[in-house]
Each structure stands twice: as structure tokens, then as C-alpha cells.
Design a protein that fits this description.
It contains 4 helices and no strands. The chain has 136 residues and is an all-alpha fold. It has one domain. α1 packs antiparallel against α3 and α1 packs across α4.
């Protein structure tokens, strides 16, 4: 696949990478509130590996597209907040918003399924109670 990669594919990968790094940072903060420091330090190794992979992806992008400008550093680096008005930053932020909206839709579908399952359990419980009342 790497031979047919377009710059838009790197923007999509970068959007996912930026979301991932933001989630990792927030997860680290929350875990550090409930774990001992010696245990939470284990988080650093996978985080460093992911950052290394992201760095390699950036290197590959610049190798594959040597004529792109330095603003393409924005593809993989930055958070999920819009910080400056480069065209690259705008493209990555737009892609992140599409990804996050898709994730929200999926989450809403999962929530709807969970509500259906919970309602089914309540209905069974009601039926069981009604059946139990009839025997008394």
C-alpha cells in the first residue's frame, strides 16, 4: 500500500495519531490519580513506542513527498485543538472532526444497543415478578 499513498492518507493517519496521543495523555493523567507511580511508569514504554512510530511515519511522508513545505510537520504533531491557521493544520483538524464524529455515532449506536439490552432485562424482570405474583 505504501507505493500508492497520497498526502491525504498521511493527513488521515496524522489525525488518528493526534487523537491517539491526546487520549493517551488524558488516560495517563487519570491512571496516575488511582495508581502508584511505580506502576504508572509502565505506561511510558508503550507511549514511547507509539511516538517512535509516529516519528517514523512523518519521516516516511517527507521522504515520499520531498517537495512539501515545513508546515506539514503539523500533520503528526499537535493536539486535537486548532492552534494556527496553516492549510495543513486546517486539513488535519477537519479530518479529526470527521473521525471524532464517526466515533460519536458509533458510541451512540452502542449506547442505543445497551439501552435496548437493559430494557429487555427489565421486561424479563417484570415478567418474572408478574409470574411470581400469580403463583402467590
Amino acid at each position: 500500500m505504501i507505493n500508492n499513498v497520497k498526502i491525504e492518507d498521511y493527513i488521515t493517519a496524522g489525525a488518528w495519531a493526534r487523537i491517539c496521543k491526546t487520549v493517551m495523555s488524558h488516560t495517563y493523567i487519570k491512571l496516575s490519580e488511582v495508581m502508584y507511580a511505580k506502576d504508572i511508569d509502565r505506561w511510558r514504554s508503550p507511549e514511547q513506542k507509539i511516538c517512535g512510530i509516529i516519528s517514523k511515519a512523518e519521516d516516511t511522508m517527507f521522504d515520499k513527498f520531498p517537495d512539501i513545505g515545513s508546515e506539514y510537520v503539523d500533520v503528526f504533531y499537535g493536539g486535537t485543538q486548532f492552534t494556527r491557521a496553516s492549510e495543513v493544520e486546517i486539513a488535519v483538524c477537519r479530518k479529526m472532526s470527521h473521525i471524532l464524529l464517526d466515533m460519536m455515532r458509533t458510541g451512540m449506536e452502542l449506547m442505543a444497543d445497551a439501552v435496548k439490552a437493559e430494557n429487555a432485562l427489565w421486561e424479563r424482570e417484570d415478567e418474572r415478578k408478574e409470574g411470581g405474583d400469580a403463583d402467590e
